[in-house]
Amino acid sequence: MLTRKIFYASLLIISLVCAYFVVINTSLADLYTDLDLLVIRVGELGVLGPLLVIGLMVLAIVFNPLPSAPIALAAGAVYGHVAGTIYIVAGAEIGAIIAFMIARFAGHELARKYLGDNLSLGRFGSQNAMTTIGLCRGLFRSCHSIWSAMRPG
Known about the structure:
- The chain has helices at residues 2-25, 28-33, 35-44, 49-62, 69-115, 126-150.
- It is mainly alpha-helical and 153 residues long.
- The longest helix is centred in the middle third of the chain and has 47 residues, at 69-115.
């Protein structure tokens, strides 16, 4: 049973890596680098345009190095603020669900395989660790905002 899960998880990861290289090595990568081209292509698709926006947003969430800002800007430019926001949120939600499922089915087994019993955080359980990370990120953003406001310029 465990080997079957590892097989499917490995197959999923290999498929995602292959999809990533297809996106990077084809003209789909141009959609991420040229906002004007993205607006034109999405506008030309008509009814299928929202599906492209949602699909690109899913790719941007699942494959972290891909930027999502050009997609959001193009959706807002083509469909307006309300509809563009709905499409972006739908794509982000679907992408987050897919990323969660990948981590849920593949991540824990692979981490346990490599880390063994060291996977447990002991007293710093997962909830406490995430709270600490969230507080540190918030503190960094606050300090950065204050520093940027104080900078002359």
